[in-house]
Amino acid sequence: MKTLLLTPGTGNFHCGSCLHDEALVRGLRKLGHDAAINALYLPLVLDDAEGINGDQVSMGGIGMYLQVKSALFRWLPGATMRWLDRPSLLRKASNRADMTSPQELGRMTEQMLLGQHGKTRLEIDRLINHLRQEGAPDTVLLNNALLLGLAEPIFKAMGCPVVCTLQGEDTFIDSLPEPWRTRVWHLLSDKAKDVELFLPVSRYHADVMADRMGLSFERMQVVYNGIEAEHYKPQDTPPDPPVIGYFARLCENKGLGTLVDAFLRLHERGQLGQARLHLAGAASPKDMRYVDQQHQRLADAGLADRMLIETNVSLQDKAHLLRGMTVLSVPATYGESFGLYVLEANACGVPVVEPDHAGLAEVVALTGGGILCDPDDPASLADRLAQLLDDPARRDALGQAGRTAVLERFTAEHMAKNVANALETACLAPSA
Question: For the whole prediction, is pTM greater than 0.85?
Answer without folding.
Answer: yes
